[in-house]
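DNA polymerase IV
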Amino acid sequence: MQNDLPIRKIIHVDMDAFYASVEQMDNPELKGKPLAVGGSGTRGVVSAASYEARKFGVRSAISGVKARRLCPELIFVRPRFDRYTEISKKIRAIFYDYTDLVEPLSLDEAYLDVTENKKGNPSASLIAEEIRTRIFNEVGLTASAGISINKFVAKVASDYNKPNGQKTVNPEEVLDFLEALDIRKFYGIGKVTAEKMYQKGIFTGLDLKSKTKDYLEANFGKSGKSYYYIVRGIHNSEVKPNRTRKSLAAERTFNENLSSEVFMLEKLEHIAEEVARRLSKSKVAGKTVTLKIKYSDFTLQTRSKTLPYFIADKAVILETAKELLYQEKMSNSVRLLGISLSNLNTEKKAKPITKDKEVSVQLRFEF
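Predicted structure tokens:
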């Protein structure tokens, strides 16, 4: 074991079924009922589901039609993002009472580094418990939390005792915790990758840890190196209060499938205009334009082009998107188009890991 890795006290706070919980809080008649935030029509998609709905298999990102089929009694409500943002700001204000090192991931979750905190409390676990209690008393919602030595383990731990619970993984417990973990529980390993790992006999963290870095890189590309480190408890990313935006995008789902490129071009013009507006508002520009295409059979395709200069102008974005549209023939009618700009002029290169390290274990470090 190496003792040269910093031990931090990281909390990952994750609100429980946030959008759905806000709707149930604002409308008591919805409490205890299966609820989906999103559209119920043929083009509708579930943005969030209450725990009552999840019992039937209703999850975010599935179609409204499928959700209704899984749960005939499902109640649909339209999302109110202004309200969710309002509530999110109240929750973040509570976070800042404890530390300025707050890294929001979305409206409903954030990392907090409480290694040094405003309360002078040496116990990250007690801080997490106090934060969750305050969120419930002051906002009216429940939250779950994970507490550990780095962001990755804290993120995994926050899902361990959901809803309305928390899990602390102490420094001396990290390796055992990760080794026993089902590979599907590793944050960043999706369904497709998990299936591939299963086929190669990798079912748990211990199975993953038995593979060499060369093997993982050969079979899982660049992500393989990351898997090699995280299963050893190594994740050096700091909590970044001002997260650097990696990309900026806009997309549209259409009421009817588009089969004519003429109609697609018309839609792309409006999308490019929206992207340009957002770039202007954020005062950023980018080099890589990506066209996102979702076909009527839900197959997803992306086409990208990197320019030698930064762009933010609608005309240039649209022209590049058109070029990508005509890059190859459409394989089916289209239900969604999107344009994103990445490789932004706000990005900084991350420092590479230059030395293999084992997680540091300091038993006297109080969690």
